[in-house]
Write a structure and sequence with these properties.
binds uridine-5'-diphosphate, three-stranded mixed β-sheet, 41% helix, seven-stranded parallel β-sheet, Rossmann fold, alpha/beta, 14 strands, binds nicotinamide-adenine-dinucleotide
């Protein structure tokens, strides 16, 4: 089976390429390297013994994208490529709509043109927006509250409408909070600039790259007052994509939407504690005001993922922190070693 992985040199994409190669699939990556580095390909090869075919392509360039479909005999697509930083999406909404929406349109056009009938789409818990109705089920109303979340919701509509009209199969995966890294420490999350997510921020404080963590609010209605989220090991997430591809062979021309989370919520202070235990390093932090647009608690109902794709997260919070720290320790400047 040959899988086109858009955004395959990115954080989640690279871990999924490792799972795909280890499960015997051929992998073709299309990525414009706007938020990733070529070095990732060497690291994937080090882990798996195989190097994916790589095209430096922007998905907004339909002609270049069609050339990949023309040359490679693609069986299915996993579509990761997107811009993903919430504050950035508020500052540059048009860029986000253009990149995420036009990229998805072009992927669907190419699939139609080249008769490819299977797609897995990266979506996000961001589509649920400001709900406090936890655990969140896939049937919850969609109210994304920032441009990023809205592009994810639009991607979902495009892919499912396309699949229905073309008799293609689609699995839409709504990720909660992916953290951690491959246990080898060879690949991991390498944010460009100061991270906006909690885990890369903590690990850069631990390595001395950042001075201290600001904990956004300790007056939420949660056991210790800090925000609670559903963290999931990126390798568990990657394995979820293999299960989703397998499911596509069964559902054929249906559309299935599932949450990928661990189903557990951890507070910011609990994450700091787990990270300190895993790394043996004290994390310098300070309580700061709430971050605009944050909810107190957000975690997934994972019943459907178990039932429909036979997938459940295996790695616990200690393992997530340990693997995150191994990656950070071995690559204090990310892939620019
Ligand atoms: P990432 O930025 O590490 O990876 C995305 C990759 O896509 C990058 O390598 C980037 O260069 C590439 N890309 C972006 N726009 C492109 C374009 N127009 N053409 C070609 N390549 C392009 O992000 P990630 O964390 O791996 O996220 C992957 C997917 O998962 C995204 O769709 C994101 O919205 C979704 N997601 C991520 C999270 C998270 O917390 N990381 C949570 C929920 C959903
Ligand atoms: N958070 C924090 N300090 C940071 C980054 C995040 O206290 O520097 C908190 C944030 O308020 C939330 C949790 O950590 O409660 C997870 O935030 P992240 O941005 O990683 O994910 P999201 O809010 O998108 O779920």
């Amino acid at each position: 089976m040959k899988v086109l992985v858009t955004g395959g040199t990115g954080y989640i994409g690279s871990h999924t390429c490792v799972s795909l190669l280890n499960s015997g699939s051929d992998v073709v990556i299309a990525d414009n390297l706007s938020n990733s580095r070529l070095e990732v390909l060497n690291r994937i090869e080090k882990i798996t013994g195989k190097k994916p075919v790589f095209y430096k392509t922007d998905l907004r360039d339909k002609t270049e994208l069609y050339k990949i479909f023309e040359k490679e005999n693609i069986d299915s697509v996993i579509h990761f490529a997107a811009l993903k930083t919430i504050p950035d999406s508020i500052a540059h909404p048009l860029e986000y709509y253009e990149n995420n929406v036009a990229g998805t349109m072009n992927i669907c056009h190419a699939m139609k043109e080249y008769n490819v009938k299977k797609i897995v789409l990266s979506s996000s818990a961001a589509v649920y927006g400001l709900t406090d109705n936890n655990p969140i089920k896939e049937t919850a109303p969609l109210f994304p509250y920032n441009p990023y979340g809205r592009t994810k919701m639009i991607q979902e509509y495009i892919v499912s409408d396309f699949a229905k009209s073309e008799k293609a199969g689609a699995v839409i995966l709504r990720y909660f909070n992916p953290i951690g890294a491959h246990e080898s420490g060879l690949i991991g999350e390498d944010p460009m600039g100061t991270p906006s997510n909690l885990m890369p921020y903590i690990s850069q404080v631990a390595s001395g790259r950042l001075e201290k963590l600001f904990v956004f609010g300790n007056d939420y209605n949660t056991p210790d007052g800090t925000g609670v989220r559903d963290y999931i090991h990126v390798c568990d997430l990657a394995e979820g994509h293999i299960k989703a591809l397998e499911k596509l062979d069964i559902i054929k021309d249906k559309v299935l939407t599932v949450n990928l989370g661990s189903g557990h919520g951890y507070s910011v202070l609990e994450i700091i504690k787990s990270f300190e235990k895993a790394s043996g390093i004290k994390i310098n932090y300070e309580i700061a005001p709430r971050r605009e647009g944050d909810v107190g608690t957000c975690f997934a109902d994972i019943t459907l993922a178990q039932k429909e794709i036979g997938w459940k997260a295996k790695r616990n919070i200690e393992k997530m922190c340990l693997d995150e720290w191994t990656w950070q320790k071995l690559n204090p400047k990310g892939y620019e070693y």
